[in-house]
Structures are given as structure tokens and as C-alpha cells.
Design brief:
Elements lengths: L1 E3 L4 E3 L2 E8 L3 H10 L7 E2 L2 E5 L3 H6 L3 E2 L2 H11 L21
Parallel strand pairs: 1-6
Antiparallel strand pairs: 1-3, 2-3, 3-5, 4-5
């Protein structure tokens, strides 16, 4: 299933939502492509979606959840990828960005 949190994350003069899957990155990438989200919007384990695209994702079937629920869903699914603080390469197996 695909989920989206409210657009409450500020950046680059916009508010952003996180689009995630609790099934697989493949499901997430396919959904994002279907609604026209560019691959560059993928970051580690989610897509960043600007506030003006939130309704598009919901209309396409993304379930609305809280930001806290996004983290829980990713963690339970084994899909959570935390930001590396050391600036090193991603862990092995985490190079599957589109």
C-alpha cells in the first residue's frame, strides 16, 4: 500500500509530504511514476512531494497518515533507511534508486 503524510516539511520555499510504501520500493517507484513524480524526488526510502501534489497522490490511491505513522510503516516493513551522518556510501543493497 502507498501512504502519504501531510505537507508539513519546509524546504526550498515549499511544504513537502513524504510518499512511502509498506510493501516494496518497486511498488513505490511504480506509483510515483504513474502520477508523474520525477525519480530525482526519491530520497533513501521515500519520495518528497510538494504540497500542491498532495491531492493528486490521494486521488491516485495513497492513504493519508501522520508523519509518525510513515516512520512506523517503513520500519515495520523493513524499508526504513536512516540518513547517514558520516557522509559515507549507502549500506550495501541500498543503491536501488530509480
Amino acid at each position: 500500500m502507498i501512504y502519504i503524510d501531510p505537507p508539513t516539511w519546509p524546504g526550498h520555499g515549499h511544504l513537502w509530504s513524504h510518499l512511502v510504501s509498506d510493501v516494496s520500493y518497486e511498488e513505490l517507484h511504480a506509483f510515483a511514476a504513474r502520477i508523474g513524480v520525477p525519480p530525482r524526488a526519491f530520497e533513501r526510502d521515500h519520495y518528497d512531494l510538494p504540497a500542491h501534489r498532495y491531492a493528486d497522490a490521494v486521488r491516485a490511491g495513497a492513504a493519508e497518515v501522520s508523519s509518525r505513522e510513515v516512520v512506523v510503516l517503513l520500519t515495520r516493513a523493513g524499508l526504513r533507511r536512516r540518513k547517514r551522518r558520516d557522509g559515507g556510501a549507502p549500506p550495501k543493497g541500498c543503491e536501488d534508486t530509480p
